[in-house]
Predict the structure.
Amino acid sequence: MLAILKEKKGPGVTLKEVPVSETPKGEVKVKVIYASICGTDVGIYDWTPWVAEKLTPPIIIGHEVVGEIIEINGQAPRLKKGDIVSSETHIFDNTCYQCRINNRHICENVQFFGYGRNGGFSEYATIPIHTTWKNDSRIPLEAMSVQEPLGNSVNVITKAGVAGKKVLIMGLGPTGLCAGMVAKVYGASEVVGLNRREYRRKLAKQIGFDRVLETLPEKEYGTFDVVCEMSGNIDTIQIALNAARIAGKIIAFGTPKKNVEFDWGVLINKEITIESVFGRRIWETWYQTSDLLISGKIDLRKIITHRFKLAEFEKAMGVMKSGECGKIMLIP
Ligand SMILES: [Zn+2]
Ligand SMILES: [Zn+2]
């Protein structure tokens, strides 16, 4: 089968024919129908320090997938052949302290599908039974692959508590775009998006953001009840602190590539609360995400802007890096 591999440490990936692996005990094998490229995959491609810490080559990359189960090796009472499933990215061990207190997404021994072990940028993939999510057939097939950015934003917006609040979304990549859509559905009074790229601002406006800004003008400092930092840019943290109202809340989601400097005094003087989000709550967020997709309150196809064959991965990565895109789909 064709697969995208991180064959060795360092930048780049390899497109290669590899044998279809056996289905390990406790896993299902799926025929991948769609996969989508995530910001993390760009980090994997570029070999950022964060990735270098977590990824030991060689592995098949890719963690946002939807596929059809063709084989089950083990007890899986909730699954059967032919089911259309997605994978939770955070593979939890179900035994550590955090797992036992219902924090499986921040498992102490978490492994990552597609960067800690083989993922799904390939024609076939295997997924642990306990991290396999069976999709509701009413959800559009392409959207099933894009549940990670939506789920992450559902978790961000739920934690923020946005009903009746003025919300700033910093960074309008797929997760930021999803966060804006979720904030509107969850009753935010105003959702403002911030991004340097015109392409992303246009897309945000199309999908329902009330306003979009290239930079935050000083007159808007101290006016946002909730600020969601989804960009991971090192210079946006100070802007987030400036943007937040006194006693406002900041949700940290984007992971900066370098250490960040900011004015600690602003945080204290404004009595700002900062909370962070690392992925989706398992499985609460998945149920919330499903409800949004089944009801049609959110249509993820609105943020899908490009589709490529798996063999065109390099081209897809080029578009991804240009920033002139929303979500990019791969078709094995
Ligand atoms: Zn991801
Ligand atoms: Zn655990």
Summary: Residues 38, 40, 63-64, 89, 148 surround zinc ion (ligand 1) (CB under 6 Å). The chain has eleven helices and 18 strands. The mean pLDDT is 97. Residues 32 and 287 are 22 Å apart (CA to CA).
